[in-house]
TrEMBL record:
Assigned protein family: Belongs to the histone deacetylase family.
N-terminal signal peptide: none
UniProt name for this protein: Histone deacetylase superfamily protein
Pfam family, one: Hist_deacetyl
Record domain Histone deacetylase: where: 27-341
Keyword Zinc assigned: yes
InterPro entries found in the cross-reference section: HDACs (IPR000286), His_deacetylse_dom (IPR023801), His_deacetylse_dom_sf (IPR037138), Ureohydrolase_dom_sf (IPR023696)
Keywords, sorted A to Z: Hydrolase, Metal-binding, Zinc
Cofactors required: Zn(2+)
UniProt GO BP: epigenetic regulation of gene expression
Length: 346
């Protein structure tokens, strides 16, 4: 199995994170990337960095704009430059106002744009955010090229993650939706694609991007959003709209979900993928479902990921794993190893 690694997989992440009203150390620490890569190496993956040609923004922009709004992409590209020119500018961009139904006049000041395009306090923008986000996109674009050439499975180590990034908004540590960009790229080869999100949190951005399309099935298994991030999406009654009706499935699970209950939900999801007659599978891969994860509420063991990998492999589809969350650093390498070896062992 090839593992395509973002060139910025191990750089320093954002400094602060707003967690239930408290600013704390941001959980996307550099050690995450190192431990995920270590797990891939232990699973005997071939580590590949994107070719230099695919690191150029001009080569990536067309793929990004296929799923993200141009005005939003332009904002991400220039946000830090404009913000840092302000007097007494902070070292990271946080929104200090959120537009709502009473505030409708668009304003292009740096502070106003931060509120317009950043949905929460988990996705601060810093000097290197745009560069790092492009690195993640370069990894998934490189990974899709291998799948389109006939590889059966590829792993993309993306950092920052992407599944919370909406068409025109950053949130939840995500800026560009790597899984969605990869899916759109794969559509040049495969006519029907399923996205299976196994991160702890609902893949709201991915759902939004494909919500009205019938060629992409989106499924997310996650913590019940009644009292869990992202709070406003991820409920069972969200089934798609228009052409995409019945092409979206959410499987919210309660706190404390163990391996047996999780695998039962996974089997339900895989049956829907089979019924959809998908030709390829994109797995938004999070390990924050692990029992000790500081941002999770499930009770999976490291060995649970081996079973998850085995079940996903049983579909027999060309598969792209796209890295999302997972914040208990001490167990990350083993969790990654278990998932990959489980998939490879079938």
């Amino acid at each position: 199995m090839k593992a395509i690694v973002s060139p910025y997989f191990d750089v320093r992440g954002p400094a602060k994170f707003l967690w239930r009203g408290h600013f704390i150390e941001h959980p996307d620490v550099a050690q995450r990337g190192n431990q995920i890569r270590l797990g891939l190496e232990k699973a005997e993956c071939e580590i590949v960095f994107p070719s230099q040609a695919k690191l150029h923004e001009s080569m990536l922009r067309e793929s990004i704009l296929a799923v993200q709004e141009p005005a939003y992409v332009n904002y991400l590209e220039s946000a830090w430059e404009h913000w840092s020119r302000m007097e007494n500018a902070s070292t990271e961009i946080f929104p200090n106002i959120s537009p709502n139904r009473h505030l409708t006049q668009f304003n292009e000041s740096p502070v106003a744009l931060a509120g317009w395009y950043i949905a929460d306090g988990a996705a601060p923008i810093g000097e290197y955010t745009w560069r790092n986000a492009l690195g993640s996109v370069s990894a998934v674009i490189e990974a899709t090229s291998y799948l389109k050439a006939g590889e059966l499975v590829v792993y993309a180590l993306c950092r920052p993650s992407g599944h919370h990034a909406c068409r025109d908004m950053a949130m939840g540590m995500c800026f560009l939706n790597n899984a969605a960009i990869a899916t759109q790229e794969l559509r040049t080869k495969f006519s029907r694609i399923a996205i299976l999100d196994i991160d702890m949190h609902h893949g709201n951005g991915t759902q939004q991007i494909f919500y009205q399309r019938s060629d992409v099935l989106t499924i997310s298994i996650h913590g019940n959003p009644t009292n869990f991030y992202p709070f406003y999406t991820g409920f069972e009654n969200e089934r798609g709209r228009g052409n995409g009706e019945e092409c979206n499935l959410n499987i919210p699970l309660p706190p404390g979900t163990n391996e047996a209950s999780y695998l039962q939900a996974l089997e339900k999801a895989l049956a829907v993928v089979s019924s959809f007659k998908a030709e390829a599978l994109v797995v938004a891969t999070g390990f924050d479902t692990f029992k000790s994860d500081p941002l999770g509420c499930f009770a999976l063991e490291s060995t649970s990921y081996n079973q998850i990998g085995r079940k996903i492999k049983s579909l027999g589809l060309p598969t792209l794993f796209v890295q999302e969350g997972g914040y208990f650093v001490e167990a990350l390498s083993e969790n990654v190893r278990q998932l990959v070896t489980g998939f490879k062992s079938v």
